[in-house]
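Changelog-linked ticket: calcium ion example.
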Amino acid sequence: MSRNALWIIPAVVALMFAAGNVSAGNIDIVNPGFDNVPILNGDIYSDISSGANWAEIPGWEILGVRGGGIHMYTGLMRVSHYFPLVGASATDQAAYTDGGTFRQILSTDLAANTEYTLSVMVGLADSADRWYDNRLELYAGGELLLSVPMVRPAAGYFTLSTLTYTTGADVADGQALEIRLVGDGWGSAQGRVAFDDVSLTAVAIPEPATMCLLALGGLAVIRRRR
Ligand SMILES: [Ca+2]
């Protein structure tokens, strides 16, 4: 094999990685920016903290009131008041909680050989002086896959938190993906957190066996050309 031909091998491998990335895509999330809820009475927020009204945030369920008996205060807030997200419009809304979990079960199942990245903008109220164990979680088929702590933003601002999880070749069918935004404040406004712009992307990762076959195919092409 000539030295020129040897240079082709890394090029072929790079092309295979590029081919794997072609199948990257956003997985559908309902109401990912919490903007699909009317603000009542022209107020800066809608208080939907009544337990019977959790379902009024389209796409999202609320789980778990922390600290038994402590009232969970959950609602939607226009960004730029307590959470002055730079670059956001005054009508952009975020969900916030003093201690509860936002959960959405997706219509997409867990896939094999896939890298998932879950992202959310996390805000800390400008009056907040505490940070609890707020977490970003990915489930499939009701089972926890990974839980990571959110990044603490400066008070009054949002910052990006992400979770990355990669599956292997062996994944059972029919496991619906589920995302959870865990607000761990114990009914305390001192630890009030907000969530916005949730996204989940999936990138197919070529299997090692496939990579070997493609590499052998590339070598065969090189040999034939000589
Ligand atoms: Ca929003």
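Closing comment: Example verified and attached. The chain has one domain: 25-205. The radius of gyration is 22 Å.
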